[in-house]
Prior knowledge:
Distance between the termini: 35 Å
Domain SnoaL-like: 23-133
Radius of gyration: 17 Å
Strand content: 35-45%
Mean pLDDT: 82
Keywords: Isomerase
Organism: Rhizobium aethiopicum
Structural class: alpha+beta
Protein name: Ketosteroid isomerase homolog
Pfam family, one: SnoaL_3
Order of helices and strands: HHEEHEEEEH
Largest sheet: 6 strands, mixed
Oligomer: single chain
Helix content: 10-25%
Shape: globular
Number of helices: 4
CATH class: Alpha Beta
Low-confidence stretches: 150-179
Amino acid sequence: MNDEANARHEEEAIIAMLMMRAKALGDKNAEEVLSHETEDSVEFSLAPPLASNGKDAAGLQGWFDTWEGPIGGEVRDAKLTVGEGVAFWSGLMHMTGTKIDGSEVDLWFRQTLGLVKQDGRWLVAHLHASVPFAMDGGGRALLDLNRELRYQAAFSATFRRPARMPMIPTPIKSRIAVA
C-alpha cells in the first residue's frame, strides 16, 4: 500500500472508531465507550476533577444515569491529523438532551482527542473538553453559546482580536451525529 493509500486507510479507521464511540455515548453504553480508550487514558473533562487517569466505568455510567433518554449531539469543524501511530482530532461538540430533573441541555463545547494505535487498533489516549470563559475578569464560563455565535459572542465583547485574525473559521469539514 502506498503512503497516500495508507494514510487514507488510517483516517478511515479512526473515523469508524470515533463513530462507534459516538454511538455508544449517545446510547449511554459506558462499557462500549471505554472499549475505545487506552487503559491509561487521561481525561480533562467538563466535570471535576481537573484530571482523571484510567477508565472509570462506574463514574461514566453514573453520569449517563443523570440523563433521561439518549444523549444527542453533533460535531462541527472537525479536524483530524494522523501520524505514525498517533493522531489528533479536534472539533466543536454540540450536546443535547434532557436530564432526569427535566432540565434541557443544549451545550456547545470544544473537544480534542489524542489517539494512539495499539495492537492494530486506534484508541483514545487523551481527552480534553472545555468551554470558553468571559475574558472580563469574572471567570464566568460561557455555556450559552450557539454555533452561529460561537466565536463572536465569546470574544467580541471581552477580547479584541487583531484585524488579521478571522472571526469565522474555515467551512465545516465533517459532521458526526450521535443519535
